[in-house]
Specification:
Distance between the termini of chain A: 41 Å
Largest sheet of chain A: 6 strands, mixed
Number of strands of chain B: 11
Strand content of chain A: over 45%
Shape of chain A: globular
Helix content of chain A: under 10%
Largest interface: A-B, 20 and 21 residues
Oligomer: heterodimer
Number of helices of chain B: 0
Shape of chain B: globular
Low-confidence stretches of chain B: none
């Protein structure tokens, strides 16, 4: 079975501060994929990034960066110079084979609510 | 136009009523999913379908049924709605040809069962 833990339920930061959202995962599979999704107050789920288990290279996209460390089973997400528009619930998710037949199931963490205060 | 659409976007119904939530996609994806989101619990998988003739139960399928009418359409039914089915429901799609199977979500349907 796989599991995703987002220990931070809610975080509040002042605008322009940096903030890191933690994600720890568990899986027995050697091949798996990690995702981050953003859910703004309007409610939709927006795909942000995916990484596969063979690629530990960190990624940066504008003010967003992701740190994938297999040694600690973590896939943390950092927002640099946060803005009010970053206020949302962020979900980390893990996709790993659950049937051994090449089918993958997406398991979500419970989410971290980020509030950026002006 | 959105690639994944859900109707209705909001629905209020009474206990015992039958209700259907619909999902349509123009992404050409073969795989479709239904999730529910409850506060503090994240998203949980209800049902999924890998093609028109394939239906599979997810983590929390009790009280729900689905129909895959076409590659582009996947409906979720609550045969006899109950208050603890009040939640935000999401449809998602993914592409069989995408090795990483990224799932793309619809805008969600807010359901309130009185």
């Amino acid at each position: 079975a796989q599991k995703v833990t987002q220990a931070q339920t809610e975080i509040s930061v002042v605008e322009k501060e940096d903030v890191t959202l933690d994600c720890v995962y568990e899986t027995r599979d050697t091949t798996y994929y990690l995702f981050w999704y953003k859910q703004p107050p309007s409610g939709e789920l927006v795909f942000l990034i995916r990484r596969n288990s063979f690629d530990e290279q960190n990624e940066i996209s504008g003010r967003y960066s992701w740190n994938f460390q297999k040694s600690t089973s973590s896939f943390n997400f950092t927002i640099t110079a946060s803005q009010v528009v970053d206020s949302a619930v962020y979900f980390c998710a893990l996709s790993a084979s659950y049937s051994g037949a090449g089918s993958y199931q997406l398991t979500f963490g419970k989410g971290t609510k980020l509030s950026v205060i002006p | 136009d959105a690639d994944v659409t859900q109707t209705p976007r909001n629905r209020i119904t009474k206990t015992g009523k039958r209700i259907m939530l619909e999902c349509s996609q123009t992404k050409g994806h073969d795989r479709m999913y239904w999730y529910r989101q409850d506060p503090g619990l994240g998203l949980r998988l209800i049902y999924y379908s890998f093609d028109v003739k394939d239906i599979n139960k997810g983590e929390i399928s009790d009280g729900y049924s689905v129909s895959r009418q076409a590659q582009a359409k996947f409906s979720l039914s609550l045969e006899s709605a109950i208050p603890n089915q009040t939640a935000l429901y999401f449809c998602a799609t993914s592409d069989l040809r995408d090795e990483q199977e990224t799932q793309y979500f619809g805008p969600g349907t807010r359901l309130l069962v009185l």
